[in-house]
Amino acid sequence: AARARIHPSILSADFARLGAELDRVRSADAVHVDVMDGHFVPNLTLGRPVVEALARATTAPLDVHLMIEDPDRWAPGYADAGAASVTFHAEAAAAPVRLARELRARGAQAGLAVNPATAIDPWLPLLEEIDTLVVMSVEPGFGGQAFLDLVLPKIRAARRAIDDTGARVAVQVDGGVNAETIRRAAEAGADVFVAGSAVYGAADPEAAVLALRELADG
Ligand code: DX5
Ligand code: ZN
């Protein structure tokens, strides 16, 4: 299997010194940026101007996770802002096929995220349209929540469906990923791992990234 990819989430970093925080995770495969609008989730974080500044501050790819209402309207702007990948939520998109195509047309990878209670079956016909399927392993909105084992069967089903169609889609798991839970997610078939508190809550974030990757690779 390909080496596991670790995406530290800056939601758990120090927002007053984001540039320096990016420098603490040099071996990250991408930096995960959680955009929350205070409507789709009960928390408000950052928006396009900050993503533009982050894109200027790092050569690492930015994996932007939009937890917002009306992504049809806002998501393309994040591709223009320099995101390598833009993920929108299945629960929020009005025209997900058109949106995924729009993101790719603007040069970004397209990600589709599903909340813990959202079934993936209705979304399987879209596999050709996306680059990443994000299985949320917590209810979105906050860092530091406990990993929900109830999503493991969904990760397994996603991996199987993707392998069956031969589509080249990554399975990203987001929420509660740490040294104790990452192995379960990897065994279920995830290949991209978002980790916020497990990386930025560690004394040495860079060492945490390396340790998580080793655990995931088994
Ligand atoms: C949750 C966010 C996650 C969050 C993960 O709503 O989408 O990306 O930063 O944080 P941890 O790893 O602490 O659960
Ligand atoms: Zn996220």
Automatic annotation (TrEMBL):
Active site (record annotation): 34 (proton acceptor), 174 (proton donor)
One BP term from GO: pentose catabolic process
MF terms (GO), sorted A to Z: D-ribulose-phosphate 3-epimerase activity; metal ion binding
Residues bound to substrate: 9, 65, 141-144, 174-176, 196-197
Needed co-factor(s): Fe(2+); Co(2+); a divalent metal cation; Zn(2+)
Reactions the enzyme catalyzes: D-ribulose 5-phosphate = D-xylulose 5-phosphate
Database matches in HAMAP family: RPE (MF_02227)
Family of the protein in this entry: Belongs to the ribulose-phosphate 3-epimerase family.
Protein name in UniProt: Ribulose-phosphate 3-epimerase
Organism this protein belongs to: Micrococcus cohnii
